[in-house]
Amino acid sequence: MGPRVLTSLAYLVAWLALAIVGGWWLTIGVILLSWIGVGEFRHVLGRRRVRLSVEVAYPAALAYSLAAALYANDLEAWFLAVLGILWLSLLATFALHLRAGHLNASEGITSTMFVTVICGLLPSLIVLIRHLEPQLTAELLWWQASFGFRLLAYVLGVTMLADVGGFAFGKRFGRHKFAETVSPNKTWEGLGGVLGAAVLASLALGALFSIGPLPGPDGPAWWVVAGHRVALGLLLGIAGQLGDFGTSAFKRESQVKDFGSLLPGHGGVLDRLDALLVSLPLVLLYARAAL
User: Fold this and answer.
1) Which of 82, 171, 199, 238 is 20 to 30 A from 160 in CA distance terms?
2) Do 161 and 34 fall into the same domain?
3) 3-state secondary structure the chain
4) Do residues 59 and 110 share a domain?
5) Which of 130, 146, 165 is the endpoint of a domain?
6) Per residue in 76-101, pLDDT tens?
7) Are 142 and 84 part of one and the same domain?
8) Domain that residue 270 falls in
9) How many angstroms separate the CA atoms of 57 and 38, rounded?
10) What is the pLDDT of residues 111-164, one digit of tens each?
11) Lowest-pLDDT range, 1-10, 35-44, 174-183, 198-207?
12) What is the pTM of this model?
């Protein structure tokens, strides 16, 4: 078993443990994750001589996670808090670059706002999802699991298994490359492996964690439930690949292979989490609209 698979399994176990504990332990874990991501972006942007306003990025990442923890079950209040953090971050970034008189201020401002979203807002959705609807419990093995935990465990599992499936399938059968200028190792066969693994994982984990409409005398037919899980699995697979390509393009432009070296077989934290981060909004939207 290679370092990539071992790292993926260790990552999944660690996040499931934090998801089970929940509360402020999970929030602290997400804040640390966000701050590591800001540091990785700062390093990569520094190679391009673009100044990241860490005076804004670090506090914004903290504020997003705290807002998610405090307002998980009041989405209107959470949305207003997010809007306020975005606004204050933008004003603070403008002020810092204006005061410093940077010649490449536009790059610094846009990069800082981009990083606050990627490393602050998106990771905070882990906290938000975990604390959704705590009263909606379902029996899971030996305990009554909340809806938020089940949804978070589902998306963690699907994105991880899709990544492992795509890597293994592409390595074994990959012949036809695409988007070589962005990611030379990507193949159509590997993409098929990602989507296939995502759908299978969604079917299995959707049943295990009771994600999607539940069949029954007053509920939809089994094939409607399966259709929900197949569709969500496909969307998660596609979103994850777009996130992967986005970070690959950024690294290629910055002439670096990885964001860091913290995780063996993957690189940095952002190299491991790119697919998950862009999948979290999709799962949240699905949970609010379809369930």
Assistant:
1) 82
2) no
3) CCHHHHHHHHHHHHHHHHHHHCHHHHHHHHHHHHHHHHHHHHHHHHHCCCCCCHHHHHHHHHHHHHHHHHCCCCHHHHHHHHHHHHHHHHHHHHHHHHHHCCCCHHHHHHHHHHHHHHHHHHHHHHHHHHCCCCCCEEEECCEEEEHHHHHHHHHHHHHHHHHHHHHHHHHHHCCCECCCCCCCCCEHHHHHHHHHHHHHHHHHHHHHCCCCCCCCCCCCCHHHHHHHHHHHHHHHHHHHHHHHHHHHHHHHHHCCCCCCCCECCCECHHHHHHHHHHHHHHHHHHHHHHC
4) yes
5) 130
6) 999 999 999 999 999 999 998 877 66
7) no
8) 1-21+138-291
9) 7
10) 999 999 999 999 999 999 999 887 777 777 667 888 999 999 999 999 989 988
11) 1-10
12) 0.91
Position 217 scores a pLDDT of 66
273 in the same domain as 163 = yes
Of the residues 81, 106, 130, the one at which a domain ends: 130
